């Protein structure tokens, strides 16, 4: 895991890039919450549990910081 406040070492990332092969992981579905769940004053019919380190979209500032 990378430290949050540390810059990426681009040269290190690009080293041996031609030999890169991604690890294969199975798909993980997020747990669904019940229909009609209310989050931050909004009611959702289709919603999953929130992520730990979720960051809202830049435009969320204009919509009371909603994080879909």
Structure description:
The protein is low in regular secondary structure and 68 residues long. It has 1 helix and 2 strands, in the order H-E-E. Strands 1-2 form a two-stranded antiparallel sheet. The longest helix has 5 residues, at 10-14.
Q: How do you describe this structure in short?
A:
This protein is largely without helices or strands and 68 residues long. Helix content is 7%, strand content 9%. The protein is elongated, with a radius of gyration of 18 Å.
Secondary-structure blueprint:
Elements: H1 10-14, E1 37-39, E2 42-44
Antiparallel strand pairs: 1-2
Which term fits the overall shape? elongated
How many helical elements? 1
Order of helix and strand elements from N to C terminus: HEE
**Strand element count:** 2
Distance between the termini: 25 Å
Biggest beta sheet summary: 2 strands, antiparallel
Task: Indicate the mean pLDDT.
Answer: 85
**Strand percentage:** 5-15%
Low-confidence stretches: none
**SS class:** little secondary structure
Helix content, binned percent? under 10%
Strands in their spatial order, largest beta sheet: 1-2
Report the C-alpha radius of gyration, rounded.
18 Å
